[in-house]
Amino acid sequence: MTISQIQTITAFVDDQDRAKRFYTEVLGFAVRSDRTMGDNRWLEVAPGDSGTAIVLHKPFPGASAGTLGGVILASADLDDTVARLRADGAQVDGPADMPWGRQATFADPDGNSYVLIADGAR
After folding, report:
1. Model pTM?
2. Where does the chain have alpha helices with state H?
3. What is the mean pLDDT of each run of 10 residues along the chain (122 residues)?
4. Sequence-separated (6 or more) residues with CB below 8 Å from residue 122
5. Is the N or the C terminus of the chain less surrounded, counting Cβ atoms within 10 Å?
6. How far is CA 97 from CA 22, 73, 93, 107, 118, in A?
């Protein structure tokens, strides 16, 4: 078996338009795809030319919005990114110095949680 990459991660959201605004206007992600297919809308965002995208999707039956956690995002300027997130109303914990580097945590409007690290920290 040869798996070459993680292509997409799905973040369940209740309001795709609100999520799109947060991910594009607050996080600065680009929309890779925004298509309606029947009753479904495929809304895919990613930071720049990053290989992995996040699909902002309505919850599937039996799933709930806000259940994504543990995804790690990297920033070239952690302190500036944290300040901008706070200025845009996001709840941010940190940054804090950890054995592997500096990190902060935040959630999108639906409660999907992310870890934000300084580039190169691991």
Report:
1. 0.90
2. 16-21, 78-87
3. 89 98 95 94 91 94 95 94 94 93 95 91 64
4. 100, 101
5. N
6. 26, 16, 12, 19, 10
Amino acid at 34: D
Residue with tokens 């999520």: 19
Return the domain boundaries, the chain: 8-118
CATH number of 8-118: 3.10.180.10
CA-based nearest residue to 9, from 74, 75, 71, 65: 71
Query: Sign of dihedral through CA atoms 8, 108, 60, 64?
Result: positive
Tokens 């699909």 -> residue: 55
d(CA 26, CA 108): 10
